[in-house]
Automatic annotation (TrEMBL):
It comes from the Eukaryota. Residues 1-44 form the F-box domain. This is F-box domain-containing protein.
Length: 133
């Protein structure tokens, strides 16, 4: 009979891997996936410039955070909530968030955002930061 390594041991091992290697490990089994997702999302900071990461974050907004966006008529994604609460694993955010928001608006929203700092951008940024906190 094969004994399983304790989750603590796997966590220590996976913490030594680079992100690229961890993506492949996500697909091994559910147990590994549950250990690896928090590791990957802990360092999401550099990926917040990607509209796909922003989309996942927007799907994680709770009702109160979404309500703050109603006056701005921002069309939030209309999909089921993600399997994991990815944003709860995030430990830091940076200016990449601004880039990702602009990219998300330009790709998913009908009205393009030409510059950082207008009301739509700030409302979305405030809601996302509120969620991360």
């Amino acid at each position: 009979m094969i004994e399983k390594l304790p989750c603590e041991c796997l966590l220590e091992i996976f913490n030594k891997f680079r992100d690229n290697s961890l993506f492949s490990c996500l697909l091994v089994n559910r147990r590994w996936c549950r250990i690896i997702v928090p590791i990957l999302w802990r360092n999401i900071d550099k990926h917040l410039g990607d509209r796909r990461a922003i989309r996942i974050c927007l799907l994680s907004l709770n009702a109160e955070e979404q309500t703050l966006l109603i006056p701005f008529n921002i069309a939030l994604p209309n999909c089921p909530k993600p399997l994991f609460e990815y944003t709860s694993y995030t430990t830091s955010i940076s200016d990449h968030l601004n880039i990702g928001i602009v990219d998300w608006f330009n790709y998913y929203d009908d009205s393009p955002v030409e510059y950082i700092g207008n009301g739509l951008h700030n409302a979305l940024k405030c809601s996302l930061i509120s969620m991360f906190l």
